[in-house]
Amino acid sequence: MAKMPYTWRQPPYPGDESDKRWIDPSMIILCEDGDIDAAIGPLLDTLYEPIGTGLIATVFVHETLREQFIEKVRGEMIVMHRQVKKHEFYKKALRRIDCLGAETVAMMQPDDIGFRYTMVEGSPIVVCDFSQSYFSINHPSTVVTLHTFRHSRELCELAATENLPFASAAIWCPKMSAAYEIALELNVPAVYINCADVSLLPIVEKHRNLQSFALLYSDHHYEVLVLRGRAKAIVFPAPLPLLKRPPEPTATATADSPSAQKPLKRHSKK
Question: Which among 83, 186, 227, 250 counts the fewest CB atoms within 10 Å?
Fold first, then answer.
């Protein structure tokens, strides 16, 4: 029998149908004095490979942090996944950005004399002040959109312009009252406050059955609220306080007594 010639073919990218539609996209909200370093971790993952599931589709940043956020993200960017930078979705996004004349956050390189800067080939792209509807609401667009807000009302108005099937939002805000106010207004089924990618398994059944519920588990507060007939999960860090140490003994002792000379030993749990 004649031998068949060997051919090597790559499997189709991405191989999980996540290029056909948005699957569980998420948003990031960075409030005034929010933790930028903690907030951008999931964003950088998306910027490297913006085709897949659970992508960060849009970011909302308080105006006081906008420039700091942009510089931080630009400084952390790396060239995106090789399969994405040659994908038709990415090429389409580049053409649309050029057509819109949109402001972008991307990796830039100077020319030989340092006079003009151009975008690095295969650079991730954050598009400022445009919603995903300008790029694609049917499938991942390969770009992340960025909006700037001044107060919670403006934030909610901007969030309404992003017409995607968001699965969750991560709010980074030092003021819990302000974070809760935003969480209750967002049209998403799950909200993480000052955390991300925390498993919702402890409350998934309650959420599915539209049952109000609260739970303190594994250093996090879990809560299910039922609003206008829809369940909303809210999660935030709530580390348990350390066990209180027993009070110091109150028995009196003279300076010459053994109890006064020897320090008390404390045994901590390991």
Answer: 250
pTM: 0.85
Pairwise CA distance, residues 10 & 4, whole Å: 18
- What pLDDT score was predicted for residue 4? 58
ω into 14 cis (within 30 of 0): yes
Mapping DSSP to helix (H, G, I), strand (E, B) and coil, where does residue 21 land?
coil
Lowest-confidence pick of 195-204, 207-216, 255-264: 255-264
pLDDT at 254 over 70: no
The pair of three-digit structure tokens given for residue 129, joined into one six-digit string: 């002040």
Cβ neighbors of 37 (< 8 A, separation 6 or more) are: 72
Residue 260 scores a pLDDT above 50: no
Long-range contacts of 178-181 (CB under 8 A, 24+ apart): 178/31, 178/152, 179/31, 179/236, 180/234, 181/152
User: Does the pLDDT at position 70 exceed 80?
Assistant: yes
How many residues belong to the chain? 270
Q: Classify 67 as helix, strand or coil.
A: helix
Rg (CA), the chain: 25
Residue with the two structure tokens 């290029």: 19
Give the number of other CB atoms < 10 A from CB of residue 61: 27
237 touches 217 (CB < 8 A): no
